[in-house]
Amino acid sequence: MAEYEGVMIFGEVREGKLAAVTTELLGCGRNLADALGQELYCLLVGNDMTSLAGEAIAYGADRVYVVDTPPMKDYDTDLYLSVSEKVARQVMPRIVLFGQTAIGRDLGPCLAFRLGTAISTDCVELAIEPGSKLLLQTKPVYGDNARATFTCESYPQMATVRARVMSSPERDGSREGQIINVEASLDPPAVRTKVIKRVVEESTGIKLEDANVVVCGGRGIGSAEGFKKLEKLAEILKGAVGASRPPCDNGWVPNNLLVGLTGKIIAPDLYIAVALSGSSQHMTGCSGARNIVAINKDPEANIFKGATLGVVGDWEELLPVLTNKIEELMAGRKRDR
Amino acid sequence: METSAHPVTPLKEVADIINEAGGEILKLCYQCGTCTAVCPWNRVRDFIVRRIMHRGQLGLIDFEGEDIWLCATCNSCVKRCPRGVEIVDVMRALRRVVTEMGIARIPDSLRLTIKNISATGNPLGEAPDKRADWAKDLDVKPYSEGTEILYFPCCIPEYDTSVRRMARAAVNILKKAGVDFGIPGSRVNCCGESVRKAGDEKVFERLARSNISVFAEMGVKKVVTSSPHCYHTFKNEYPGLGGDFEAIHLSQYLLELIRENRLNFTREINKKVAYHDPCYLGRYNDIYEEPRQVLESIPGLELVELPDCRENSLCCGGGGGRIWMETKSGERFSDMRVEQALAAGADVLAVACPYCMLNFDDSVTTMDKGNFIEIRSISELVSQAI
Ligand SMILES: Cc1cc2nc3c(=O)[nH]c(=O)nc-3n(C[C@H](O)[C@H](O)[C@H](O)COP(=O)(O)OP(=O)(O)OC[C@H]3O[C@@H](n4cnc5c(N)ncnc54)[C@H](O)[C@@H]3O)c2cc1C
Ligand code: SF4
Ligand code: SF4
Q1: Closest Cα to atom 26 of ligand 1
Q2: Which fold has domain A208-336?
Q3: Which A residues in the span 292-321 are in contact with B, Cβ-Cβ below 8 Å?
Q4: pTM of the complete model
Q5: Structural domain boundaries of chain A?
Q6: Complex ipTM value
């Protein structure tokens, strides 16, 4: 029986660069390969990615297998699966890793099936067991309340790895490696899906989850027009707008702006809560904020309990004053620089 | 998929897992569809309970879909099933497959809540030593050995400031009636009812065993609960795990106090009050009369009946862990219930369960009906009248 050797990671490209999850995989793959005393391979599938093979080497790969052809421009399960299978059968790596991404979740299990092996998905820790040299695959189970470690005795040993849990290595432009171009033998009848059109989910401005500042409005805002005023403040602070349940229910804002237990759970540096009472379900979503500033006309409102700073008053009077002052200060800051 | 082109291959393993997890009763189902017909979900959207039963028999459950998380465990279908299928137990078994085998995702908000309960003993993830904070200024003592009654408010009134009012009112009544009682301190946990219905049997057992031993250590003989969920669990599920104490719901206890002339009504409440039967008091434990009699003994109060009442009560939508999950606007049972109460001309919708209170309060807020109807617990109404 031929020997399975080396660690192969499946690389992904985002906006013309190696995806963050790919450099993370290269870092983690490098450690595993070193622990085995074997090589690290990277498989890159796509179109127009000539420079990226060198990048993969700079981030730790010893050999990069490149499938660069126009039909591979966009991800397609059947196409990608057939070339991945071909490369995996040729190279016979001991370990194959994917990112826990839309592509990795789809392609990883399909490839494992084709190769007659198993896969652990969503791993957060990988290591080589010193004695058996098997890959220890650790993933959260029971709703993140425990961790389970698996090994797999068939080869290749496969896993998908959660994004942002492994760290990317330093880029080292002086590293040397081998680039191998692989011919993709395309079999059009094997391609069973056809992309009819792409719809990009519309999102303007900064995403609620990523924003450092969130201006959140409640039922007291009263209308969609009212929310426009919150948007203005959010824009000045380079932040995002959120909402409690009633504004979402009433259609003043889209449902995906809901903050709370059953909406988004966020932890911005600054959370400005305007005309919302601070129900327990809402607080679950924002209590992780570093600072909460609350504006409410009711001094008894629950939101004041968790607030760093509270202002009792009518938001329609207070908000314009606050917005103008902040705008002034922000403008001043720009001039100073 | 069950289409004619492909023969169905029953997934025996999954069927076995469901059976093992407590769904063997499933085999009794003869597919009449009564469950689908009575399920409140079908008033707002499709939820084909019968089909879930069939798929369960075949082991063809869609574990990734939202269906297995919809059931509010209201027990309506169980009460009506001609074959005695314990449909709620089947739903619980399906959820167990997910929580215990990790084969699909638990809805985020539910997962977070289970994690909170597991780590801190309460669904809000608050500190255990703050459990008695709600009563700080009320001059009540923590339960200690020799006290006659443990008043158990449920985590929601203890930790959620908006529902606190139902427990504070209960304390006022118990004090005025001269009852010898104490409240839970930091060693007590959530009763675990929703965790169990959410499919996490292990966490449930851990909570239950811990409460049972703490109660035994403190010498608790009689527990009065605010929540029908705690009541049901203490009364019907804890004994199997070694629980040895009497559980009684506050509405029953209030009636006892009234009958013993220990409550002196001094004020009238001249309002029309509709009473909402909570599933876990009514359909689960056949308690329909006591809450009504308590309300009727309040001077001036006029009790009105809602269209779906008693055995047919319309669930508020909060059971089975649904109180921790999002229900879309337009699909909330509690909205329909508030509409029913308004149509019945009620000034007050009276509740006997903290989950109902959370849901109805929210419906009144989001529907902007605060000027037309109030949500009050039975304890608040009694407390106001004495
Ligand atoms: C299962 C379930 C899940 C839920 N999940 C969530 C969730 O994820 N997120 C969420 O937000 N809610 C959630 N809710 C709803 C929650 O219970 C509350 O109903 C909701 O958060 C209340 O929103 P609010 O604070 O905007 O409204 P209200 O409670 O009505 O508060 C409005 C506030 O605005 C103030 N106000 C009014 N006018 C003015 C003015 N001119 N100037 C200043 N202040 C003013 C008032 O004093 C009041 O405090 C959930 C409910 C349930 C039952
Ligand atoms: S009511 Fe009972 S027998 Fe009829 S379909 Fe439902 S579970 Fe089956
Ligand atoms: S218990 Fe209630 S919500 Fe669940 S399936 Fe039966 S009728 Fe529907």
Answers
A1: A218
A2: Rossmann fold (3.40.50)
A3: 302, 305
A4: 0.76
A5: 7-190, 208-336
A6: 0.84
